[in-house]
Amino acid sequence: MCGIMGYVGPRPASPIILQGLERLEYRGYDSAGVAVADGGVIEIRKSAGKLDRLRQKLDESEPAGHIGIGHTRWATHGPPTDENAHPHTDPTEKFAIVHNGIIENYFELREELRASGREFASDTDTEVLVHLIADEYDGDLAEAIRAAVKRATGAYALVAVTAHEPDTMVAVRMIRPLVIGFGQGETFLASGIPALLDHTRDVLVMEDGELATISAAGIILEKLDGTPVERDHLDIDWDVEQAEKGGYAHFMLKEIFEQPRVVADSLLGRLDGSAVTLEDVKWDSDFEQSLEKIWITACGTAFHAGLAGKEMLEGLLRIPTEAVYAHELRYRDPIVEPNSLTLAISQSGETADTLAAARLLHERGSRLVAITNVVGSALTHYSDDVVYTRAGLEISVASTKAYTAMLVAQYLVALRLGQSRGVLDTARASEVAAALEALPSQVESLLTREAGIDEMSRYLATQLSDENDIYFIGRGLDYAVATEGSLKLKEISYLHSEAMPAGELKHGTLALITQGTPVIVVNTQAHVYDKTISALQEVKARGASVIAVAYDDDSEIEHYTDHVLRIPRTMDLLSPVLSIVPLQLLAYHVADARGLEIDQPRNLAKSVTVE
Ligand code: AGP
Hints:
The chain has an eight-stranded antiparallel beta sheet, covered by helices on one side. The chain starts with a strand and ends in an 18-residue tail after the last helix. The protein folds into three domains: 3-244, Aminohydrolase, N-terminal nucleophile (Ntn) domain (Glutamine Phosphoribosylpyrophosphate, subunit 1, domain 1), CATH 3.60.20; 253-444, Glucose-6-phosphate isomerase like protein, domain 1 (Rossmann fold), CATH 3.40.50; 449-593, Glucose-6-phosphate isomerase like protein, domain 1 (Rossmann fold). Helix content is 36%, strand content 23%. The protein contains 19 helices and 26 strands. By secondary structure, the protein is α/β, with parallel strands linked by helices. The radius of gyration is 25 Å and the shape is globular. The protein binds 2-deoxy-2-amino glucitol-6-phosphate.
């Protein structure tokens, strides 16, 4: 998520903007910049890297104006470079804009503008917007922005200034957050409340589809169609740390609840009906037709996403697919067939084992695709293609939203390959695409339903928090989810847990099941549902306490379990995106019940960049 800060008032703008951007640093970024309007010109200072590089540029020559905008960029389109840093200006440098989010149709808009002779200084989708605004400007910045955003589609927040109106900035919220702070004779705008708290606690939260014309005296708030909007202000009583967590107790919980937006972002601009666009994938249809093997390699949570990917890709495409831990693969002597594809999955794109395994397969001729959350990460430098997960910065060491985004990335790859290889007919492809499009709202409903999984998992956590050995079981895709649920629990609650295929219990582990042993089962896959019920009966007969994750409309499961965490029904193929959520919450609440640190668990790092 990028950071946005704006100011208009009697004081010099750039120190206030820089301070606001510093308050937003926790969101993660790879470049930063400031634009200040003063005396008919707009001064820009921007650079790749951290705020200290921007501060250095401002120290060398600080713009003097009293109105300005600033930005910390988390790259989604184009690598982190000085040119790609925000703010972006039009060729006359009379307009400047900063933007957070994704303009879905930026490519065709840019091609249209190029055809009319426009040149672009960056690779970003943002720059397209400022060209449109400049084209539409006819003496009223708000009207120009209103006209420009009508042509853009996507999820974004933007704010712009123009040298023609050096006392006004105009902001638009379209899904990405924007908040306005009110001071004495000065007004602030930011993408997050932490940036405002040094100046004011009198805040207004903009809503989707709104445009705010902001001056030192206050704001005019309207719908994009011009309808005036009245909205109460909020008096924020959070401290800065609480504000950085959006009011949640931990970043992990905040990131669990960000998943509806993350799943939506992972799909944004990539699905048109069942047609799949992967903007950083360069392979051609000949490659797709010739594909004979898929390798998946990763570590930890990313590997668990890859386990689900293996089941799904092999099931859909009928191509042999092998998921191998990267720390195992890198020391093997793998037989790499020609015409093979490697999906190297890594949130950070910096995990040493994953980089080594990915390079080994690549050196032996496999086409390397990075599925990663960090633009410009090491893994992307070695890869032929990239599918960015667009989860935004994930602060908690325990990975949650990145996991669901990794799943979505693999579904998109499968949907694309399945259609190009003719194994997914139009009807089936449309069914998968429709089910994917429904996921964001299903995750949202799952997280917000009354007396839903948050309350239930909080209750169950109190029962688990003193247990020593907890077992997660499932079959097929449900087993892949069980492995991730087990890791979530153990890495933040420090309780031992173990995941295994449900069918494996009777081959040994059943000996450990005694009265009250907690067993958590994921049971959504229709073709093995009854078999998993048999495994449940095995453990229940030996006294286990069973918690199931099952569909809302499954009326059979409660006969075999003590508790059920229910999820909305979707295609069994896609159920991992939903079934993991209760297990994430369960792990969180167990660790919380045990009074543990949660965001920074002992002994663990967010990215294991050494062997
Ligand atoms: C998962 O919650 C852990 N943070 C850890 O297992 C992590 O998934 C693993 O280290 C891989 O990290 P990566 O995705 O950045 O490569």
